[in-house]
Design goal:
Blueprint: E1 4-6, E2 13-15, H1 24-29, H2 31-36, E3 40-45, E4 53-56, H3 58-64, H4 68-71, H5 86-98, E5 102-109, E6 115-126, E7 132-141, H6 143-165, E8 169-173, E9 179-182, H7 184-190, H8 194-198, H9 202-209, H10 216-228, E10 234-239, E11 245-254, E12 260-269, H11 271-299, H12 303-318, E13 322-328, E14 334-341, E15 352-353, H13 361-368, E16 374-376, H14 386-394, E17 399-407, E18 410-419, H15 428-547, H16 553-562, H17 564-596, E19 604-606, H18 608-618, H19 620-623, E20 631-635, E21 642-644, H20 646-665, H21 667-674, E22 692-699, E23 704-711, H22 741-752, E24 756-762, E25 766-774
Helix pairs in contact: 11-12, 11-15, 12-15, 15-17, 17-18, 18-20, 20-22
This protein binds flavin mononucleotide, adenosine-5'-triphosphate and magnesium ion (MG).
Adenosine-5'-triphosphate binds at residues 655, 659-660, 663, 711, 713-716, 724, 729-732, 737-743, 767.
EC number: 2.7.13.3
Domain PAS: 31-99
Domain Phytochrome chromophore attachment site: 302-440
C-alpha cells in the first residue's frame, strides 16, 4: 500500500493520513520525482463516478502515446482493446470494488494502435479515516520481456519436443546432482518409473539403474570420474544383464562463456546394431571360409588336400572340438578319411566305424535329400538308441552336425562337426555353413573324380603318343639307314663300275697294245730287210736286162704284165709308206700304254698335255672328218708336271671329250630345243659356225692347273643342270649312255684329287667344263 506521496513544494513527504482529502496539486506538482520515474503512474479519483484520471506522469504519456490533457477525466479502460483478456479486466474490477490492491498483466493499446503488455499494479489511497479516495496505477511496459519469455517458451517447447523425438535416452544432471532434464525414452530404456525421475535425484536414479548393468562397478567409477572432470567427454558401451547393449555418450553442458551447467548423458540402444554387425561379421567369415574352400577346390585337384583344408577351416570357424569326413564303403560301414581335432580330444582318423544308423534305408534316403542336416545338440536328449549313444560316447561325441556329401547321385560320405566338451546348441548360421560346405565338397569330389578320369585318359593318350613317336622315330631311323645304305650301295656300285670300266678298258687297251706291238716290232724289224731285199732284187733284174736285151717271150710277157718300171718306182715308196705306218702304229701303242697306265695305279707326275693328246688319239675315230667333222682347237699353256693319278685323269678327259662330241652330234634340233633366255658367259666363241671343241690348259693364281674343255654343242637345259653329276643321270637314249661319265669324273676330280669340276652352260649354245687340279 502506498502511504506517502511527495510534497513537491516543500520537498517533504506529507502524511496522507493527516488530511481528509488530499489536494491534487501538491500530489502532481512534484514533476521531478514522478517525471523521473520509468514506470507510468496514473491517479484516479475513487470518489467520482467511473473513476476518472486526475493525474498521469510523463512515463505514462511515453508508454501510451497519450498526453496528460487527453487522458485526464477519462477512465483508464480506453487503453484496452479487442484482445484484452476480459478475465483480467474482471479481476481489476473486482479489486476496485473490494478496494484491494491488484497486480495484473494485460494487453493494452497505445494511441497509434500498437499493442503492448502492461504490468499494472493498482493500489487504493486512503484518507485518515481509511476511506479510499484515490487509486494509483503503476504501469510497466513489459512487451519486450513478454516477447523474450514467449520465445524462450517456444524454444523450450521445441527442445522438449526434440528431446522426446530423440531415439536416444537423454538425462542432464547438474553439478549438484540434481536431474535438470530427461526424456521419456530414458525412462523407457532404463525401466525407471516417471515418478522417481520427478524426485530429480541423481542418486536415486543410479540406484535404479546400476543393477541392470553387467559390470556396475566399472560403470559407476567412470561416472564418478567424469563428474570430477567436468570438461571431459566420453563415449563407451554398456553391457546390460538382459543382453542389451547401450552406447553411452557423455558431454558437459557448457554456456557460451564456459560455465558448466551440468552433464548430459545420452544412451543409445545399439543391441540390434551389434547383433546385425555380429551376424554380418559371422556371415562374412562364413563366406570367406566357403570361398577359401571353393578356391582350394578350384586351385587344387588334389582331393585329399581339399578335404583336409575343409575340416581344418570348418573347425576354426565353428570353434568345435572335432570335424571329420567320413567315407562310406559299399556295405555302408565307413572310414574317417580326414579330420581336424582340438587339443585333448581323441584322434579317430583312419577308424572304420560301423554305425547301424546308416544301415537304415530310411536314413539313407533322408541323406540323399539335398540340404538335409542331422542336428544333435545333446546325444542324451535326441532320442538315440542306446547302442548309438554308446558308439558316440566311445568317440567322445556329445553334440554333432552331420551333412551328406554326394558324388553325383550317390551318397559318397558325410561331413561331421562334433562337440566333445559338452552339449551344444547349434546356431542356424553354423548349420547353414555346414550345409553349404557339404555341397561344395560334393562338387570337389565330382571335380576330383573327373580329373582322375581325365588324367587317366591323358596318361593313356600320352603313352600311346609316346609309343607312336617311338615307332615313328624308329621308322625314320630305318628310313635314314636305308637311304644311307642305298647311297653307299650306289657309291659302291659306282666304284665297282668305275673300276670295272677302268680295268676292262685298261686291260683291253693294254692287251691290244701288246698284241699290236709284237707284229709291229716284227714288221718294223723286217721292213729294212725287205727294203734291202727288194733293192737287191731290182738291181739283179736290171743287170739281167743289161746282159740279156732279148729276153725269152715268157719273161717279156711277165715284165709287161707286172709293169716292172712302175714296180721299180713304186716299191721303195710302198716300203717307206709301210715304214711310216709302222711308225704310227708304234706311237699308237705308246699312247695306248700311256692311257691305260695299268702299271701306274699310284700317284705320279703327269704331263697333262701329253695325257690329253693320248686321249684325243684314242678318240680319233670319233673326230675324223668322215665321222663328225669336228674341229679341235687346242691352246696348251706351259704347265708343270701335275702330281696325280694319270690313268684316272685321262678317264676324266675322255668322259668330258666324249660328252662334248655327243653334244656336238646331237644336232641343231636339240640345240634349238635347249635354247633359253639364260645365257652364261662362256670363255669360248661358241657362236663359231663349225662344230668345235676348245681345249685350253692354264696355271691358275690359286696354284692349280685348269683344264677347260668346251664345245658349241646343244648346251645343258637349265632344269637338268643340277642333276648332271648324279650317277645314272643321262639324257641319252637307252643303251647309248650309262649316265656315269660325269659322276665318275666328279669323284675322280673332287674326291681323289681334291680339286673342282665346274660346269658352265648356255643352253642351246654350248658348254664348258673346267677341271681344276691343285698343285701340291
Ligand atoms: C488508478 C487506476 C488505474 C488504472 N489503469 C488502467 C490501465 O492502465 N489499463 C487498464 O486497462 N485499466 C486500468 N484501470 C482499470 C480501468 O480503469 C477499469 O477500472 C476497468 O476496466 C474495470 O472497469 P470497467 O468494468 O468499468 O471497465 C485502472 C483503474 C484505476 C482505478
Ligand atoms: N658337253 C655337254 N653338252 C651338253 N650336255 C652334256 C654335256 N656333258 C654332259 N651333258 C649332259 O649330262 C648328261 C650326263 O652326262 P654323263 O657323262 O654323266 O652321262 P652320259 O654321257 O649320258 O652317259 P655315259 O657318259 O655314261 O655314256 C648327259 O646325258 C647330257 O645330257
Ligand atoms: Mg658321258
Amino acid at each position: 500500500m502506498i502511504s506517502y506521496l511527495h510534497q513537491p513544494s516543500t520537498g517533504r513527504l506529507f502524511d496522507a493520513n493527516t488530511s481528509d482529502k488530499l489536494s491534487l496539486e501538491p500530489l502532481c506538482l512534484d514533476e521531478r520525482i514522478l517525471g523521473a520515474a520509468s514506470c507510468g503512474i496514473v491517479l484516479s479519483d475513487a470518489g467520482k463516478p467511473d473513476m476518472p484520471i486526475v493525474y498521469c506522469n510523463p512515463a505514462f504519456e511515453r508508454i501510451t502515446g497519450y498526453s496528460r490533457q487527453e487522458v485526464v477525466g477519462r477512465n483508464c479502460r480506453f487503453l484496452q482493446g479487442v484482445d484484452t483478456n476480459p478475465q483480467v479486466v474482471e479481476q481489476i474490477r473486482q479489486a476496485l470494488r473490494t478496494e484491494q490492491e491488484v497486480k495484473v498483466v494485460l494487453k493494452n493499446y497505445r494511441k497509434d494502435g500498437t499493442p503492448f503488455w502492461n504490468e499494472l499494479a493498482i493500489s487504493p489511497i486512503r484518507d485518515a479515516k481509511e476511506r479510499v479516495i484515490y487509486f494509483i496505477g503503476v504501469q510497466t511496459d513489459i512487451t519486450s520481456q513478454k516477447q523474450a519469455q514467449e520465445e524462450l517458451r517456444a524454444s523450450h517447447a521445441l527442445l522438449k519436443a526434440q528431446q522426446e523425438a530423440d531415439p536416444d535416452g537423454v538425462i542432464v544432471i547438474a553439478p549438484n546432482g540434481q536431474i535438470i532434464n530427461y526424456n521419456s525414452r530414458l525412462c523407457q530404456m532404463w525401466q525407471v518409473p516417471d515418478d522417481m525421475m520427478k524426485s530429480s535425484d541423481k542418486e536415486e536414479f543410479l540406484e535404479c539403474v546400476l543393477p541392470l548393468i553387467a559390470e556396475p562397478l566399472k560403470v559407476f567409477s567412470k561416472v564418478e570420474y567424469l563428474e570430477q572432470h567436468p570438461p571431459l567427454t566420453h563415449k563407451d558401451e554398456i553391457q546390460l544383464t538382459d543382453g542389451r547393449i547401450f552406447e553411452l555418450y557423455s558431454t558437459p553442458a557448457l554456456s557460451a562463456t564456459g560455465t558448466c551447467y551440468g552433464r548430459i548423458w545420452s544412451f543409445r540402444d545399439i543391441t540390434q546394431n551389434k547383433r546385425t554387425e555380429q551376424q554380418l561379421k559371422q556371415q562374412a567369415k562364413q563366406e570367406r571360409l566357403l570361398s577359401c574352400i571353393n578356391q582350394r577346390i578350384n586351385q587344387s585337384l588334389n582331393l585329399n588336400e581339399v578335404l583336409n583344408t575343409a575340416v581344418e577351416e570348418v573347425r576354426k570357424f565353428i570353434k568345435c572340438d572335432r570335424t571329420l569326413i567320413y567315407r562310406f564303403n559299399p556295405d555302408w560301414t565307413g572310414t574317417v578319411d580326414v579330420e581336424s581335432v582340438g587339443e585333448g580330444w581323441m584322434r579317430i582318423v583312419g577308424t572304420t566305424i560301423e554305425d547301424d544308423f546308416f544301415k537304415n534305408p530310411e536314413v539313407i534316403s533322408f541323406l540323399y535329400q539335398d540340404g538335409y542336416i542331422r542336428v544333435i545338440d545333446d546325444i542324451y536328449n535326441a532320442n538315440l538308441s542306446p547302442c548309438h549313444i554308446e558308439l558316440l560316447e566311445k568317440l567322445q561325441v556329445r553334440a554333432n552336425l552331420v551333412a551328406p556329401i554326394l558324388h553325383g547321385k550317390n551318397l559318397w560320405g558325410l561331413l561331421v562337426v562334433q562337440q566333445c566338451s559338452g552339449a551344444r546348441k547349434w546356431q542356424q548360421q553354423e548349420i547353414e555353413c555346414v550345409r553349404k560346405l557339404s555341397i561344395q565338397l560334393s562338387m570337389a569330389i565330382q571335380q576330383a573324380a573327373l580329373f582322375e578320369q581325365v588324367s587317366a585318359e591323358l596318361k593313356e593318350r600320352q603313352a600311346a603318343e609316346a609309343a607312336l613317336r617311338k615307332s615313328e622315330t624308329k621308322l625314320k631311323e630305318k628310313a635314314t639307314q636305308l637311304e644311307k645304305t642305298l647311297r653307299e650301295l650306289k657309291q659302291t656300285q659306282l666304284k665297282l663300275i668305275q673300276n670295272e670300266k677302268m680295268s676292262s678298258l685298261g686291260q683291253l687297251v693294254a692287251g691290244i697294245a701288246h698284241e699290236i706291238n709284237n707284229p709291229i716290232t716284227f714288221i718294223a724289224g723286217n721292213i729294212d730287210h725287205a727294203n734291202q731285199y727288194a733293192q737287191d732284187l731290182l738291181e739283179l733284174v736290171q743287170i739281167y736286162e743289161q746282159h740279156y736285151p732279148q729276153p725269152a717271150p715268157e719273161i717279156e710277157t711277165l715284165t709287161e704284165d707286172i709293169d716292172i718300171d712302175f714296180l721299180r718306182e713304186d716299191l721303195p715308196k710302198l716300203l717307206s709308206s709301210m715304214q711310216f705306218g709302222v711308225n704310227r702304229l708304234e706311237t699308237l701303242v705308246a699312247s695306248l700304254k700311256n692311257f691305260s697306265r695299268l702299271d701306274e695305279a699310284e700317284r705320279k707326275c703327269m704331263d697333262v698335255e701329253q695325257g690329253m693328246e693320248n686321249t684325243l688319239l684314242i678318240l680319233q675315230h670319233r673326230l675324223k672328218p668322215e665321222a663328225s667333222n669336228i674341229q679341235v682347237v687346242k691352246d696348251y699353256g706351259k704347265l708343270p708336271p701335275v702330281d696325280c693319278y694319270p690313268g684316272q685323269l685321262n678317264q676324266v678327259f675322255m668322259n668330258l671329250l666324249n660328252n662334248a662330241i655327243d653334244a656336238l652330234n646331237s644336232g641343231d634340233e636339240q640345240a634349238d630345243k635347249n635354247k633359253g633366255s639364260a645365257s652364261t658367259e662362256l670363255s669360248f666363241p661358241y657362236h663359231a659356225p663349225t662344230p668345235t671343241i676348245w681345249i685350253r690348259t692354264e696355271l691358275s693364281e690359286r696354284n692349280s692347273v685348269l683344264i677347260h674343255i668346251a664345245d658349241n654343242g646343244c648346251g645343258i637345259p637349265e632344269h637338268i643342270k643340277e642333276q648332271i653329276f648324279d650317277p645314272f643321270f643321262t639324257t641319252k637314249p637307252v643303251g647309248e649312255g650309262t649316265g656315269l661319265g660325269l659322276s665318275i669324273s666328279y669323284q675322280i676330280v673332287v674326291d681323289k684329287h681334291e680339286g673342282h669340276l665346274h660346269c658352265f652352260s648356255a643352253p642351246g649354245y654350248g658348254t664348258e667344263f673346267v677341271v681344276e687340279i691343285p698343285l701340291l
